[in-house]
Amino acid sequence: MSLRIGDRAPDFAAESTQGRIQFHDFIGDSWCLLFSHPKDFTPVCTTELGYLAKLEPEFAKRNCKIVGLSVDPVTDHVRWLKDISAATGGNVSYPLIGDSDLAVAKLYDMLPADAGITSEGRTAMNNQTVRTVYLIGPDKLIKAMVVYPMSTGRNFDELLRLLDSCQLTAEFKVATPVNWKQGEDVIIVPAVSDNEARERFPEGWKSVTPYMRVVHQPRH
């Protein structure tokens, strides 16, 4: 299946480093960051898991759960977590899903249906497409997808910024401009008429062009 922004995130049951997970139940009423890895004991992924462990409190403040996935069994994950802690100083407390039968990678369109049914004998290179971040809302819909090559470590500070933007724009009829950061001005979406905008943003806005109306960031 092919997944796109706005699609319902597929539900699944799988073993993890914190026991069996039913994915939609795990998300509950929270947001969720699901990020995948092609193989355990790989250097770039080791740095990613460790850094995200340190950043997890920031995601928690935003009611966003973190869950990792790697195309290897949970027993390997447990051994890998020790390396991650030693190498990065980050102690992973979020669950890491085992996908040794490749079922979740296929379900999320990261591996083709004919990829086989076991991670045994597979390498990071032939799993290289399992490098996707999915940001999923409490409604279980995919809000954003970001795909990285194996050679490039993911920027989780940017993904935190993406979460801020998605949460803000889900609540208010605004969009965030280029390089926006929390607290900066935003843009009233074109679908909002000036009459509606006056009701929603009584303090007014700055019209840069007829279609670009800049307003102070609304507060939750």
Secondary-structure blueprint:
Blueprint: E1 13-16, E2 19-22, H1 23-27, E3 31-37, H2 43-61, E4 64-70, H3 74-88, E5 96-98, H4 103-107, E6 132-136, E7 142-147, H5 156-171, E8 174-175, E9 186-188, H6 194-200, E10 206-209, E11 212-215
Parallel strand pairs: 3-4, 4-5
Antiparallel strand pairs: 1-2, 3-6, 6-7, 8-9, 9-11, 10-11
Helix pairs in contact: 2-3, 2-5
Task: Record keyword descriptors for this entry.
220 residues; alpha+beta; Glutaredoxin; Antioxidant, Horf6, Chain A, domain 2; five-stranded mixed beta sheet; four-stranded antiparallel beta sheet; 6 helices; 11 strands; 30% helix
Describe the protein's architecture and organization.
The model has no long low-confidence stretch (mean pLDDT 95). The chain has helices at 23-27, 43-61, 74-88, 103-107, 156-171, 194-200; strands at residues 13-16, 19-22, 31-37, 64-70, 96-98, 132-136, 142-147, 174-175, 186-188, 206-209, 212-215. It has 2 domains: 13-154, Glutaredoxin (3-Layer(aba) Sandwich); 172-215, 2-Layer Sandwich (Antioxidant, Horf6, Chain A, domain 2), CATH 3.30.1020.10. The chain has 6 helices and 11 strands. The two termini are 36 Å apart. Helix 2 (43-61) packs across helix 3 (74-88) and helix 2 packs parallel to helix 5 (156-171).
Q: H/E element string?
A: EEHEHEHEHEEHEEHEE
Gross morphology: elongated
Radius of gyration: 19 Å
CATH architecture of the largest domain: 3-Layer(aba) Sandwich
The N- to C-terminal Cα distance equals 36 Å
Query: What portion of residues belong to β-strands?
Result: 15-25%
Average of the residue pLDDT scores = 95
Helical percent range? 25-40%
Largest sheet: 5 strands, mixed
The secondary-structure class comes to alpha+beta
CATH first level of the largest domain: Alpha Beta
Low-confidence stretches: none
Number of helices: 6
State the fourth-level CATH superfamily of the largest domain. Glutaredoxin
